[in-house]
Design brief:
The protein has 416 residues and is α+β, with helices and mostly antiparallel strands. 30% of the residues lie in helices and 24% in strands. The chain is built from nine helices and 22 strands. The protein has helices at residues 26-41, 50-62, 123-142, 165-174, 221-235, 283-297, 334-347, 362-365, 393-410, and strands at residues 67-70, 76-80, 87-93, 112-114, 117-119, 150-156, 180-183, 191-192, 194-195, 197-206, 241-242, 246-247, 249-258, 268-277, 301-305, 307-311, 317-321, 323-324, 327-328, 353-354, 373-375, 390-392. Strands 1-2-6-3-7-21 form a six-stranded mixed beta sheet, sandwiched between helices. Strands 10, 13, 14, 15 and 18 form a five-stranded antiparallel beta sheet that branches. β11 and β12 (246-247) form a beta hairpin. The longest helix has 20 residues, at 123-142. The chain is elongated and about 80 Å long. Bound molecules: zinc ion. Zinc ion is lined by residues 93, 125-126, 185, 384.
C-alpha cells in the first residue's frame, strides 16, 4: 500500500479543525426532499440519464450555482469556490440499474414515503447523494462560506455498467486535478476507504464438430469447457486474503456454445469469469492462473479480458476494458481523519471505517489516478440493487451537513 499526502501541493498541517456549515432549515429540508422525490420519479437507467441530468442542472442553477455545464458525454459538472487553493471533487452517478425482478411492494418510480423513509428505484443508489451534494453546495453559497480552492460536483453517466470511465473522461477532458475525491455511494454515514478490484474474463474453447450420433469423430467443446470450469473452481481455495478486504474470489457466471444443430457436437464453447481481486493480486497474475489451468488440461482454449463499447445518451462512446485493481486508502490517512472529525462535529455520529462490497468510480480516481479517495453517503449499501430500495430522509439531511462542512474545512485556507 502507498502513502498519499493529504495536501500534496499546499503543505498544510494534518487534520484541520473542522468548520461547520449552516444547518438546513425545515423549509430547505422539504425543498430538498421534493427534489429527491422528483429525482426518483424520473427514470435514469444507464444510457438514459438525460431527464435526470436536466433536472439536476435546473436545481443547481436555481440554487445559485452559476458555473454548471453538461459535457459531451452527458455528465453534469458544477463548480464553486474562488479557485485559489486545492480541489475537492464530489462524485455521484445519475444512472440506476433496472428494478430487480419481483419483490417490490411499490411501483419502482412511484416514490412512497413511510415513517421518514423514502422508497423508490435509485433512492439509495444514489439519488439521495445527488440531492445532498446539490443542497450542500446551496448551503455553502447561501452562507457565503469562503471556499479557497474549488469544490467540483460531478454527476456521471453509466457508472453501473462501466464504473470509472465517465469520471476519467471528465478529469481528462476538463483538465481537472482533484486533491481529494469523495464518492457519495451509500455507506450508512460511515467512511469507506476502498474495495476489491474486478476483472471480467472470457474463455473460448475450440472443439471439433461431428454428428451427435458419432461423437467419437468430434471434439466436444462443452465437455472440454466443463473440465476447465472444474479446474477454475479449484483455484478459489488458493486465492489470497487481505485482512481488511477479504479474499479474492472467482465465479463462472455465463456460458454459451455453438453447434451446427442440436444433433451436432458443439465446435465452440465460451464462458465468462467474474474475478474479484483483493489487495496484492494483479490482473496479469489472475489471467496467468486461468492460463495455467488451460495448459494443465491440454485444451485448445484462450482467455481474454472483456472489452466492449458503451454509448452514452449523447452518442459519446467509451471503450471499456473490464479490469480494475483493488484499492484501499490507509486507515489513518489524513483525509479519513479529517472527515471523521467533521462527521463527529457536524452530526454527532462516530463513523466506522470500512470497505465497500461493490465496485465504484474509485477504480479510476484511486485505483488508476492515485488521488486520495474515500466514500461517504446516506443509505444502506445492502439496499442497492434490491427490491424496495429505500433511504432514510434524515440521513440525507445529515449527509448534506457533512458534505458542506467537509468542503468548508478542506477549503478553509488560501494557498497564499
Ligand atoms: Zn452506486
Amino acid at each position: 500500500m502507498r502513502f498519499f499526502p493529504l495536501f500534496p501541493s499546499f503543505g498544510f498541517d494534518l487534520v484541520l479543525a473542522s468548520h461547520s456549515a449552516p444547518v438546513l432549515d425545515s423549509n430547505e429540508q422539504s425543498e430538498m426532499f421534493s427534489f429527491l422525490k422528483e429525482l426518483v420519479q424520473t427514470p435514469s437507467f444507464s444510457a438514459q440519464e438525460q431527464d435526470v441530468a436536466k433536472l439536476i442542472i435546473k436545481h443547481l442553477r436555481s440554487n445559485g450555482i452559476k458555473n454548471v455545464h453538461l459535457d459531451p458525454a452527458g455528465n453534469v459538472i458544477a463548480r464553486i469556490g474562488n479557485g485559489n487553493g486545492p480541489t475537492l471533487l464530489y462524485d455521484a452517478h445519475m444512472d440506476t440499474v433496472y428494478p430487480s425482478g419481483g419483490g417490490w411492494s411499490y411501483e419502482a418510480h412511484a416514490v412512497a414515503e413511510e415513517d421518514g423513509v423514502l422508497y423508490g428505484l435509485g433512492a439509495c443508489d444514489m439519488k439521495g447523494s445527488i440531492a445532498a451534494f446539490v443542497y450542500a453546495a446551496k448551503q455553502l453559497i447561501q452562507d457565503k462560506t469562503a471556499l479557497h480552492g474549488n469544490l467540483i460536483l460531478v454527476f456521471v453517466v453509466q457508472e453501473e455498467p462501466c464504473e470509472g470511465y465517465a469520471l476519467k473522461y471528465i478529469l481528462e477532458e476538463q483538465g481537472i486535478q482533484p486533491d481529494w475525491v469523495v464518492l457519495g455511494e451509500p455507506s450508512n454515514l460511515n467512511i469507506m476507504r476502498g474495495h476489491r478490484g474486478r476483472v471480467l474474463f472470457k474463455v473460448t474453447v475450440q472443439g471439433k464438430s461431428s454428428h451427435a450420433a458419432s461423437p467419437e469423430l468430434g471434439d466436444n467443446a462443452i465437455t472440454a469447457a466443463a473440465r476447465l470450469i472444474f479446474g477454475i473452481e479449484l483455484l478459489a481455495a488458493e486465492l489470497p486474503t487481505d485482512p481488511s478486504l477479504g479474499p479474492g474470489t472467482i465465479a463462472v457466471t455465463e456460458i454459451e456454445s455453438r453447434s451446427a444443430s442440436i444433433h451436432a457436437v458443439p465446435h465452440t464453447c465460451g464462458f465468462y469469469i467474474d474475478r474479484r481481486l483483493t489487495l496484492g493480486e494483479t490482473i496479469t497474475r489472475a489471467q496467468a492462473q486461468i492460463e495455467s489451468v488451460i495448459r494443465r488440461e491440454g485444451i485448445d482454449a484462450t482467455v481474454e479480458i472483456v472489452n466492449h463499447q458503451i454509448t452514452t445518451y449523447t452518442g459519446h462512446e467509451f471503450s471499456v476494458h473490464e479490469a480494475f485493481r483493488a484499492w484501499s486508502v490507509e486507515e489513518n490517512h489524513p483525509l479519513i481523519q479529517t472527515i471523521e472529525a467533521v462527521i463527529r462535529s457536524a452530526i454527532g455520529h462516530s463513523p466506522k471505517v470500512g470497505h465497500w462490497p461493490f465496485s465504484t468510480d474509485g477504480v479510476y480516481s484511486m485505483g488508476e489516478a492515485e488521488i486520495p479517495t474515500i466514500g461517504f453517503g446516506p443509505g444502506d449499501p445492502r439496499c442497492a440493487h434490491t427490491a424496495d430500495e429505500h433511504i432514510r430522509l434524515d440521513d440525507v439531511v445529515k449527509a448534506t451537513q457533512v458534505y458542506a462542512s467537509l468542503a468548508a474545512t478542506l477549503l478553509s485556507k488560501s494557498s497564499d
